[in-house]
What we know:
By secondary structure, this protein is of the alpha/beta class. 48% of the residues lie in helices and 15% in strands. It has helices at 7-25, 30-38, 44-59, 61-71, 79-93, 99-112, 119-140, 144-148, 152-161, 166-173, 190-199, 236-245, 262-270, 282-295, 338-342, 345-362, 385-394; strands at residues 179-183, 204-208, 211-214, 231-233, 252-256, 274-279, 300-303, 318-324, 366-376, 398-401, 410-411, 420-427. The strands form 2 sheets. Strands 5, 6, 7, 8, 9, 10, 11 and 12 form an 8-stranded mixed sheet that branches. The protein has a 4-stranded antiparallel sheet with strand order 2-3-1-4, with helices on one face. Helix 1 (7-25) packs across helix 6 (99-112), helix 6 packs across helix 7 and helix 12 packs across helix 13. Mean pLDDT is 95; it is low at 1-6.
Amino acid sequence: MAEVASSATLCEAYAGAARVVDAVQRGDRLNDALIKVDRSLSGAPERAAVRDLAHVALRGYGLVHELVAALAHRPPSDPLLLALLYVCLADLRHRRAKAFVAVDQAVRATRLLDLHPATGLVNAVLRNYVRRADDVEARATSTDRGRWCHPQWWIDLLRASHPRQWQEICEAGNTHPPLTLRINMRRTSMDEARNSLDAAGIAHEQIGPSAIRLVKPLPISQIPGFGAGLMSVQDLGAQFAATWLDVRPGQRVLDACAAPGGKTGHILERTECDLLALDNDAARCARVAENLDRLGLHALVRCGDATQPQQWWDGQLFDRVLLDAPCSASGIARRHPDIKWHRRSADLGQYARVQTDLLRALWPVLKPGGKLLYATCSVFPVENDERIDVFLREQPQARRLELPDGHAGQLLPDAFHDGFFYALLEKR
């Protein structure tokens, strides 16, 4: 957990993280909840601590939910009080604060949250956990929800679709994600980037042609060269997109669903091309433009619906199309742990329909002999291979190509990258 300056700030961090988790329970996105709570905090250490506590609690939400059920004779009905218990139990489990300090600060946080009548309950539940940790952990992890910290429908689907790897996928989804940098080879070199990190005392390792993984994640403000556009934060799995799209100099390229622009920037860092970056949200388009400006790159950024080419297409065919399709984001749940608890199984069918609509709409804008790279950050086949199989049956002009170096289309989350899916299609 991010260090806090004193026990008083730990108390404030517990209260702030409880507000965040409570907002997520009520349907807010985690990032939105964090922004709201950040405004009420006294300084950067508290904001960092709240962010870390909230992420840890939500990654382990299934387990701490079961722990409260095991520890409290009658679990409280107040969502904010439950959120505070979840945060504090998650912190106790990870041994990030001495037990007596954590319990004391949790009780103080109860008062900060105007939950004065619950101070005795919070004290009793947390002290009960400290006394009986092994016993209650065993009880809590006897259920799938408690053991794997994912919704039951999610676990069942992984069991069915990835029978040999489903446990590893769940475990990876509950870990802290790696922080990987993509080096902008137009402005620096791998050796220069590594030397600057060494000079700053930042431990790291090279894990790809333009990828460096930091041993310990840091705020981007502490990464030398980030502000000057020498590097970007991008997961290794996401970095495969620009490579596998195989853009040649001077080609006409469409990056559909481009925001926030990570893959757009990588394509342009690798190759001089005529690129249209498309997204259907004006604010997200602005982010694409900002990211390209920081990197010293240029593309035509346009707001438009990729399923309606008549709104934005000038009639000139593209040599390459990158379709980074909207999806469940099940492969990046460790970065956005609220996803696990907000998604419903019915959502997958809705995503699948949008993904098929996008493939059908964008295929006509691709030249004969051109390539379309379909990408998602999902591990569910209904959004991945099944969508490609349906499209190939419909479209006789399409054929699926092998990915370079024998890579499988489905990347499962591990210590080096998140979960992604890629399928490379060629137009005959």
